[in-house]
Please model this.
Amino acid sequence: MLRSKAGQEGCDVYIPPLTYIYTDGVALPQGPVDFPTTTSILIFNAAIANHLFARVQGRKEASLRYLRKAKKLYVLAHEGQENSDVNFLFHIAIINNLAMVDLAIGDLESAHKSFEYMVSLMMLQLDQGYDLSSHLHDFLSNIPIAIKAAPAA
Model:
């Protein structure tokens, strides 16, 4: 059951309890920034807006419409930053939020693939000596949800 911030019942789109969705908009960096990075940041911020707006809709159809729009925008943001020099945490935030949208709309297979990809990226960063402990705790909290929601093999 989707619940609003105040705990009021919203609609019947499923959002697992205690999930982490990155909800802070990303500010454009100061100084010169390449076009793909700027575009990805703007698209990501629009995706967050649609994702959050879906959470406060009173009807399932309206919520699903905004969630589908958020999914398209997260995919575009991800595609737009693949070949640019984007911050690792920004990349993880896109993947995490995309997976959370997939869970909410019932696309468990896509959500599971996104979480697997996110864990692989984190493992790669750990292998390269990147300290993940202080930055990614919230994102890691979604991994048990992904395991529970994973489709049967």
